[in-house]
Write a structure and sequence with these properties.
The protein has 190 residues and is α+β, with helices and mostly antiparallel strands. It has a single domain, classed as Gcn5-related N-acetyltransferase (GNAT) (Aminopeptidase, 3-Layer(aba) Sandwich), CATH 3.40.630.30. It is built from 6 helices and 7 strands, in the order βαααβββαβαβαβ. The radius of gyration is 15 Å and the shape is globular.
């Protein structure tokens, strides 16, 4: 039985393995530097777990995917969402994002935000299908600008990137329930 649950300390090493596996898909796009990027350090993942800002989908043998969240300028921010490529097409990425949207709504946060690659099929185009929209420069908040600056310093702007936002509402506006693309090699939001 598959469950979406809060991550625990014992999930941390598997979450790192999931990140490594999902990163391999970037090689097919000539983005070896992204594929070679280390997963978040265990100490960072433990901080997310301890503060209740990490969730996993577990098919009974450990995480098949995970989401890390922050609050950036009053919005729930998807820091990372990753699904193991063996589970692509199972809608786990969408379910993790929807879970964060439900939590944001309960906390009175107006939207979800994230930063991602614009042209990677399982990044920008995927999030558009989940109800996110690209933010023009004039709509970027100070926190999102700071995140983008750190990404530039990390070298991620070798490929087009941007910020996205999805409003949250009691009716789930902006969150279409589409079938996830089964051909995507695994979700790895960056």
């Amino acid at each position: 039985m598959t469950v979406l649950r809060s991550a625990t300390e014992s999930d941390v090493s598997v979450m790192r393995d999931v990140e490594r596996a999902a990163g391999e898909a970037f090689r097919s796009l000539g983005m070896d530097a992204v594929a070679d990027d280390d997963p978040p350090p265990a100490v960072v993942l433990r901080e997310y777990v301890a503060s209740g800002r990490a969730w996993v989908v577990d098919e009974g043998h450990g995480p098949a995917g995970y989401l890390l969240a922050d609050v950036v300028d009053g919005c729930a921010h998807v820091e990372q969402v990753t699904v193991h490529p063996e589970h692509a097409g199972a809608r786990w990425g969408a379910r993790l994002v929807d879970h964060l949207a439900e939590r944001a709504l309960r906390r009175g946060l107006p939207a979800l935000t994230l930063t991602t690659f614009r042209d990677v099929p399982w990044n920008g185009p995927y999030y558009l299908r989940l109800g996110f929209r690209w933010l023009p420069e004039e709509e970027l908040t100070p926190g999102l600008r700071a995140l983008r600056q750190r990404e530039r310093e990390h070298g991620l702007d070798r490929w087009p990137r941007g910020c996205m936002r999805r409003e949250v509402s009691p009716l789930g506006a902006g969150a279409p329930r589409e079938t996830e693309d089964a051909s995507k090699p695994g979700a790895r939001g960056r």
